[in-house]
Amino acid sequence: MHDPMTVAFEIKYPWRKHRNPKHPWEENYRGTLVTIWHVDPEADGTDDSCGWFIRGRHLDQEVMKKIVAAYEFDWDGTFEKYSTGLFHPDGNPHLSVIGITINLFRMAANVVFESKGSTNWKRSRRWMKDNLYDIMHFAENNTDSLFDGITRKFEIGCDEEHTPERRKDRIRSMASCIYSWIERERRPWYKHPRWHFWHWRFQLHPVQQFKRWAFSKCAECGKRFTWGYSPTSHGWGGGDGPLWFRSEKGVYHTDCAGVTLSADKEDQACHASEYHLKEEEIDVPCAK
């Protein structure tokens, strides 16, 4: 589970932030006046029940079954001793990575663009033609692609056996990945969850900065923060941010946070015997 909040929109100040820019990026930079967050209701127990980033669970499962069946048919067939599918029976690719990817997308598109039980070939081919570059780039690139999955890079590296169960999971995973990719590309802009205004939360930066400047104090030294200062904490749970008429909990000046961490380490050293730690594992002496 991750944070259910995602930035939907940002409203910038009408003026530039830096009057005398020292770096090229500062020349036209404008600070954020208001951030509009989309807060997912987590209706299905996940942090993306609205489908901000469409996954297989958000889609029509009947269509998913048809795509899986199409993949099953052409996945690793053989004729006598010759491979006739996209993959060899041992799970390794029979065709090139790009060739396999294009075929998988084509089969999925044929199902997605079905109308009254038959494929709309014209729409399917037009969609494939319009998205061919992006499909090929998704097949092979050095950041996020299908290459590792098609070539079984990690399975081979980890010496994992290609079993019927692994084959089934692989087909299902590939169908979910490609079907989701198609639907993300096809989704009209107005159906994106960023337009779920009933899930919006507004972050007014000037008000937030005022509350932090006026009411928040460092948990270590007790002193206030200067205007626009971004304090640090010791965990991911940041709470609700600056509050009215009372200080945030667990926020520190950067220098004070280091002092607190050192104190925590001293405390760990003092209780080494309680946690059965070896003396050589503790490099901070106990405070006298």
Describe the structure.
- The protein is of the alpha+beta class and 288 residues long.
- It folds into 3 domains: 1-52 and 192-210, no CATH class; 60-191, no CATH class; 216-288, no CATH class.
- It has helices at residues 61-74, 97-112, 121-130, 132-139, 147-151, 153-157, 164-186, 205-215, 254-270; strands at residues 5-12, 32-39, 78-79, 82-83, 114-115, 118-119, 200-204.
- Strands 1-2-7 form a 3-stranded antiparallel β-sheet. Strands 3-4 form a two-stranded antiparallel ribbon. A two-stranded antiparallel ribbon has the order 5-6.
- Helix 1 (61-74) packs across helix 7.
What secondary-structure arrangement, pairings included, does this model have?
Layout: E1 5-12, E2 32-39, H1 61-74, E3 78-79, E4 82-83, H2 97-112, E5 114-115, E6 118-119, H3 121-130, H4 132-139, H5 147-151, H6 153-157, H7 164-186, E7 200-204, H8 205-215, H9 254-270
Antiparallel strand pairs: 1-2, 2-7, 3-4, 5-6
Helix pairs in contact: 1-2, 1-7, 2-3, 2-4, 2-7
